[in-house]
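Q: Structure for this?
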Amino acid sequence: NAGVTQTPKFQVLKTGQSMTLQCAQDMNHEYMSWYRQDPGMGLRLIHYSVGAGITDQGEVPNGYNVSRSTTEDFPLRLLSAAPSQTSVYFCASRTYKATNEKLFFGSGTQLSVL
Amino acid sequence: EDQVTQSPEALRLQEGESSSLNCSYTVSGLRGLFWYRQDPGKGPEFLFTLYSAGEEKEKERLKATLTKKESFLHITAPKPEDSATYLCAFRALSNAGGTSYGKLTFGQGTILTVHP
């Protein structure tokens, strides 16, 4: 049972570099999202998607882009990395069914921007 | 402004010493209150959802309760394997429909350490 798979697990970037964090789920979930987790701040929503071709901004979207071309994949792009983007990033997914509000999280990507 | 605060930030217990974690929230309309467990180096793992004041949910040594202003996670006779960070989150009624149904607001977490 793969669930939500994130790659890479660790990444170091220099300021100004770009990269893509990958997220894939095999549960046929409509909803997918990206959170960042910083010490003392809690998890904050970056972007989310309710289906292929549909994305929207969360609480902290600046500096990040997303797209959703398939149900399974929801990559997060850092356009020009900044030290303020040093964080742990989590992808999460869930089904749309109102009776099941359980969010499934990936294992995270630890990103350092120097 | 909708917000959630967890206390204490850290809690150390001896094995078998029961205690409670607190989650205080301010939201114009509550759709659901969630508890997650997070182990070091891993993503959060779902524990409970509570929808209305007075509701309770139990799982092994954990029991979650909800009032109109706060939620408690009660840990009875904890074991070292219960050591983790416990996160609470809410979904506002304003995020219940449309395309916002998955938006959760998280607290900063309580780090629980249970010593043998």
